[in-house]
Amino acid sequence: MQGVKVIPRELERPSRIAPAQKSVNEVDSEVRGRIEERERELQRERELQERRLREYRAD
Amino acid sequence: MVFLKFQNEDLFSFLSSHSVGEKIIELLKGLRVGNFDELFTNQLNARHFRASVHEPCRDLLYSNQGYCTVVVYPDYISFFVPISTSRMYEVVVGVNDDGLLFSNIAHVYNGTEPSLHNYNPKKLGEYDLFNAGYAVPVYFMETAERIYRLFGYDTELVQPTSTIDTSTRKVIRVQGDRTLVVEPFSIETLQRMMQRGVETYMRYMWIDTLLSTFVDNHITAHPDEFMNVVVRRFFWSSAPWVDAQTGMRIKTRELTDFLVSWFRNVANIYAEEISPVHTSLDAVTPNGCQFMTVRIQLSTDELGTARVRVGYCNNSSLLLRVEEVSPGQSLIAKTLIQDIAENLRERRFNLTRYFGNHKIYMENAVTLPFDYEPPDPLKFRMLEPATIRVGEDRRGWYYVDEKSLVRFEHPEHPPKEVRFNGPAFISFGSTNVAPEHIDLMNVLAISSYAALHEIERL
Q: What SS3 state is found at B431?
């Protein structure tokens, strides 16, 4: 029939695919995870510097 | 304690006249010859009873462990079975939905005694119920309150459809070993559940607002991996807050004055300098950056208050870190909380959950936690849109109200339908049984398969 657009029934059904959105709680815990990792990195750097300083003084 | 001395037949007629279930009385009658398998809901329960009650109680005559004791209730019967000198099983036999009996090791007493006297038991007499040469004391209790306590519920659903009163917290046995926990709904509980998510959202809303405020005023800004707001090339040699003659030293006073004035006059955000800090819990910077002790406080009616730490990088970037926010009575926080509460009442889902062989179908219920998507005007502009998760610490609970229906289905039990007379949070549990009950049931079930397997091998 001209002028009539037939939509397959499958397309009328609500999609099971939903946009994946993070919750702000998840975003924040990822950021906090990176902050903690950076803190550990800084701590390692501080310990390394202290060790070098002790070695230098010992020499 | 009332003591009544009966003959066996007198005992059974007494129990019959006190609303004790017919199958319970038939079980007591069948103990002498061990003829009771047909009374149980399935062979597994019959074998469980034989192994946990009938055989041990028959074998106790010459042991020094003590003897079995029986307490009868209208629809239950407890057998106290000494397993060793210091351990005792309480095996409860009750009537299933199919009218037949089930058997559970409800509790194991390790060196302790069951507290029966709180429930006003009547001692009916002592009878050689097991035909084992010793007299078994038999008690009677008018109600099954003690059994409810033992199994961990307050009441049972008997009718196929019921409406639950949601004004008080209660645990209801619905079907088989499945229980329904009901907690009254309160707006305070809901607010507590939302508080953390809304506060976090407001903090990111502040970061988003700072970013968009810079961008709206033609200043490019971006968030770094730690969610600090970065403004590149903020420090150049002739900037009023830079002393180029002393190696690009930052003039803190001039910098603070500029930032406060810019936020007030250009960005229309109330700003003031607040007391400096020397340490900060999460003031972490990328390589080559550091925070100063300078802090400013920003406020708007919409967003509430944010305390912002100021920092700089070797590449001349400015860092702003939103350290803490107090959304308090801010317009956006109030709108978010109100909108979440309204959506909770309006938006419903149909859900199906399985617990063992129980299928639980829920209509017009909301699962916790749930994700709330803020309306367009309250979405982030510069950051990726994000939802607010509500009730993360209440996983396994559901919001229900007058429009909700919960239907319990099980292959061995008739279905039950439950409605509610008001809003409530519900969750599902199971009746208390001793780990020894599960151990014995598994041994009985697996041993049947092992026996079949042996026959097939021969």
A: coil
